[in-house]
Structures are given as structure tokens and as C-alpha cells.
Amino acid sequence: MQYDVVIIGAGPGGIFSAYELCQTNPSLKVAVFEAGHPLEKRRCPIDGEKIKSCIGCKSCSIMSGFGGAGAFSDGKYNFTNDFGGTLYEYIGKKQALDLMRYVDDINMRYGGEGTKLYTTAGSRFKTLCIQNDLHLLDASVRHLGTDINYVVLENLYAYLKDKVDFYFDTPVRSLAAEGEGYQVTTDDGAYTCGKCIVSVGRSGSKWMEEVCKSLEIPVHSNRVDIGVRVELPAAVFEHLTDELYESKIVYRTQKYGDLVRTFCMNPKGAVVNENTNGIITVNGHSYEDPAKQTENTNFALLVAKHFSEPFKDSNGYGESIARLSNMLGGGVIVQRFGDLIAGRRSTPSRMQEAFITPTLNATPGDLSLVLPKRILDGIIEMIYALDKIAPGTANEDTLLYGVEVKFYNMEVEVDHHLQFRYPGLYIIGDGSGITHSLSHASASGVYVARAISGQV
Predict the structure, then answer these.
(1) What's the pTM value of the predicted model, to 2 decimals?
(2) Given phi > 0 = left and psi -120 to 50 = alpha, else beta, which region is 75?
(3) Which end of the chain has fewer beta carbons closer than 10 Å to its terminal beta carbon, N or C?
């Protein structure tokens, strides 16, 4: 079947590409191919009772399907060029921020109205952090919550489904240049198009690497972020989360000079499993609805590792650490901070004696047998540093879940239109190695749609 535009991946980048194409050039025949399920069929089987841990579904409903890995995230859209990607290097800082605000306007029209916009501008916590050798990054953040984010996606799909052909549970096996266009091949057949937008997300990193090899597209080595997810009583961080909601805090370790950062803070949220290419890692969600909130707050502490020659497989390095955790714990490992400092593993009995109830059923264990010493030392330093601005962070019963890994695609060589060396072939979203967040991925989708329609 012939299409004007084929979009590979129905995550934020793919969704907003399709939306903007419908707005700017509704006569185009557009198809979206997605390896995962439609939104209404995305159901993780873990219920905490009959099924307590990941069973390795063929298609992980947390990581893939309409909405991408962001569908069941806590729906945080950060509007900043300081983190979340380097989109601004290709399209300019002003245009990047304008596109993020445009995405926010769409989200508000499609069900997000009434949600709160937070900002670090003028926050007293910026001074408090500096006084304790911590650095609070500037940003505005819209928090939709996992529940409202789902509503927004439902409404966007309702708008798109009669205007765009969606192929769910249809992974694209190969992508090839054909004449003046492209051919995408699936298990059900081949489809051709004049222009192609690739938006496969982080979970499509291995597929993206194969495509770049087959099309001889240059890529640059990227990084991997490795760390843990911290869970503690919500009251410990309440003074920050009530005002800022999401606080991106960076610390430079004294021992190694490595940068450790907080990531994806979920006030009164829950810790969850993720399945990326068969590897079980950990993440966090939070809800706007008070009835779904917990008594705990969770956030990631991540150490970014950049590798130099001759090593080129940063994602493979992160995978090997995650696999070790899976080997020892059968999935995610959880450890009390006090046990980690005392040099002993957490046991079920020690966990039961703790003054905090875990929100994820994980295996008590010893993270020092999993994480490299340099990374673990940095995380411990960061916890003590955070304890100065949020007393209680370094309590013995603070829980550490491991491992959390943020895989980054190899950064693909594209022009200022986010176009490959092949005309009409675009790479957007987290699969590009250029964007790392919901807001940046969505903005990149809008941008290439406008480029296809001749509006940039």
C-alpha cells in the first residue's frame, strides 16, 4: 500500500507528527506503525496479588503501544532547554521552547485543562541547594499525572483514528530506500511511502542501530545513565514537591567528580517495573487523582557515564548491569539504605521491620553486588547531600530499588530539519538520541510535520 507519509512508532513524537500533519496538510495519506497495543489494550498483568512481578510479556504494555513509554509515566512535560535533550542545537532555543508550549496548549485542549504548571523561577530552594553544594536546574513543568495523561492520549487518538491509518501490534522489521521514497516491511507485508518519520523511542534502540547500519547512516556514541530509584515517606520531600513538584537537582561527587542527578520525581507515587528488550528495570509513576496517591515519594538517582574509544556499546554496558540485577533478584532488587551502609543485604524480615511500606513487590537483596563501586559511591554521596536540604533522605529505612537504567540511542547524524542523509527520511523522539523527554519528543514531532508541509 502506498502512503504519502509513514510514521514508525506511536509514542509522543509519532502522535504529534500525525496530529500536526492533520492540521497543516489534511490531504496527505498517513499511516502509523506501532509494535505495541492500542491504548485500551495496554494492561500490565501485575496486580500485586495473583501476579506480583514481571512475567515477560511478548509486548510490554508499560513500554510500548499507543502513547509509547510515556503513556503510563506520570505525565510530566518540562519546558526547558537545560535538560531533556539537545533539540535546540538543531532548531534554535526559541523555536524549541515555542514548540514545547504549543504541545502544552494541545494537551490542555485534549483533557489536561486544570492541571498545574510549576516553575523553579525565583524559588528559595535554588539558594538552599547552592548553599549545600547542590544545583537546582531551571524549568517549568506541567504535571498531568498518569491518569490525566491517559485521558489526553484517549482524546488525541479519538481525533486521529479516522484521519490516520493505525497498524497496532505490527512491528516494522526493516526500512529501505526505494526509488524516491521508502519501503517499510512488516510480517503482514510491505508498504511504501514518499516520506518516512522514525520515532521508535528508547525501546527501539537496537532496531534503530540496525537501520543505521543498513542505510549507512553515521551515528555518534552516546551515554547511559545508571542508578537506583529512591522511595521514602512523602513528608521528607513535601516542602520541595508542594512548591516545585519536580526538582532536577545535580551534585558533583567529591570522590570522583561524577555528576549525579535526581530524575522523574513522583510525589505520593508508586514504583513500577519496566521491561526493555527482556530486561526488567525500575521506574516510577504518580497520579493527579488524590484517591490514587500513596504515602511515599519516589525519584531516581542517576549517574551519567560517557564512554570514549575504543568502547562503543554504552547501552550494552547498562544492559549487563541490569541483567546482573535480574540474575540475583529474579527482577528488581530492593535494599534499605541502612543495610547498604552497614554492608549487609536486606532480608524479608528486615524489610518488614522498616517504617515504610514499599509500593513495588521487589526482591530484598544487596545492590553492592550489582552496581559498580564508582556508581554506588556517587549515589551514597548524593543521598547524604540531599539529606541536608531534605532531612530524612538518609534514614536507615529509605528504600533503594535497582537498577534504574536510562538507555540512550546512538545520536544519529541529521540536519537542521532532523532529516537523515536521505531526503524525506526523518528521525525524531528519544530514538534519535537527541531528545530525552516527553516535551522534547513531542516538539520534534511537530517540527518535522511542519517541515514536510513546507512550513519551516
Answers:
(1) 0.82
(2) left
(3) N
- Reported as type and span, the H/E element at residue 368 is none
∠ CA 201-205-210, rounded to 5°: 130
231 neighbors 220 (Cβ within 8 angstroms): no
Spatial contact of 3 and 191, defined as CB atoms under 8 Å apart: yes
The number of residues in the chain equals 456
Rg, Å, the chain Cα set: 21
Distance CA 94, CA 319 (A): 36
Cell of 204: 527501539
Coil vs helix vs strand at 258: coil
Q: 300 has which bridge partners? A: 229, 263
Alpha-helical segments (H) within 25-182: 88-91, 93-107, 124-131, 145-160
Q: Does residue 25 contact residue 216 with C-beta atoms inside 8 Å?
A: no
The residue written with cell numbers 543505521 in the block is: 212
Reduced to 3 states (helix: H, G, I; strand: E, B; else coil), residue 321 is helix
Task: Kindly list the distances between the CA atom of residue 21 and the CA atoms of 5, 61, 107, 286, in Å, as whole numbers in the listed order.
Answer: 9, 27, 17, 31
Q: Are residues 263 and 248 in contact, defined by beta-carbon separation less than 8 angstroms? A: yes
Q: Which helix (H) or strand (E) holds 387?
A: helix 373-389
Determine the Cα–Cα distance for residues 365 and 343; give it in Å rounded to an integer. 11
- Give the phi and the psi of residue 349 in degrees, each rounded to 5: -70, -40
User: 231: which strand partners?
Assistant: 298, 399
- Identify the residue whose cell numbers are 485542549: 109
For the stretch 211-252, pLDDT in tens is 888 888 888 766 889 999 999 999 999 999 999 998 999 999
Model confidence over 372-390: pLDDT tens digits? 999 999 999 999 999 999 9
Rounded CA separation 129/133 (Å): 6
Least Cα distance to 78 among 97, 64, 105, 54 occurs for 97
Q: How far is CA 254 from the centre of its chain?
A: 28
Number of other residues whose CB lies within 10 A of the CB of residue 23: 14
Report residue 154 as a C-alpha cell: 484517549
b vs e for 382-411, b when ≥16 Cβ sit within 10 Å of the residue's Cβ? bbebbbebbeebbbebbbbbbbbbbbbbbb
| Residue 438, amino acid | L
